[in-house]
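Final report, results section. Input specification for complex C-07:
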Amino acid sequence: MATNFPTSLDSLTNPSSGDSLSSPSHSAQHANVNDAVEALQAKVGVDGSAVTSSLDYQVANQGLTLVKSQTIGSGVSSVTVTDAFSSAFTNYRIVFDIDSGTPSGVLFLLGSATTGYYYFELQITTGGTIGGTGGSNAASAKIGTLRSEGGGGIIEVLQPNKALRTSFACIGTDKSNDPFRDTRGFMADTTAYTSFTIQPSVGTMTGGKIRVYGYNDG
Amino acid sequence: MGTTMAEYWTRDELEALYPDGTVNVQVDDDVRPMTTDEWSAWIDSQVGMEKLDDTGI
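Structure output:
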């Protein structure tokens, strides 16, 4: 029986203690296992595999790697995610979704820094009215709006763990008639950050997830 | 960007909504109540901030 893996899983016959060497065929048993192991090796791939269908190649070349997934607690005024940034990746994506909270702004902070944020949040209503909120050397960066129905956003963070200014951009959300919230900004200092905080500007938030992904540096 | 008159948070309102001992801070999976000093500073930081509501949709 030639192996069917990886198209489908093999169903191998286990010999019993009283079976003869000819039934099931002893040599066929070895051949079947050899074929299955070779198919497994081909699927896994060698170190640094260039075979695009191999797992080794796909793991090494995937665009994003999940670094951390953090559940947001109940009635919290802030959530700090530690060990989010390291030298393992240069750039990161943070995806956060909040289930509910006090209607307010959503703030983004790096490490323990409470100064040095330069940003602008562009806001557009469903009717096309354009406005915005900015900050220079602010205590945090506003990256969206939280409503009682929740909120969220996608933050792109560039070079947070390098001794350079950290840039960030956020596709923010607002579950109201001001749905467009788009922020660009940077942190003026050159600290190599490992952590960040997300918090409402007023009150608390409950439930949801914060997921941190690292971009492939390949 | 609404057209209604803006309203702002007062200390009394914030203290009524978020009494001492009811507000948590979270670091990774560790969720703990704020100390009274932390809570007082947290309330101070929000006094005078604009109120948002869920209307308009």
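The helical segments of chain A are 26-44, 55-61. The mean pLDDT of chain A is 95. This concludes the modelling results for the funded period.
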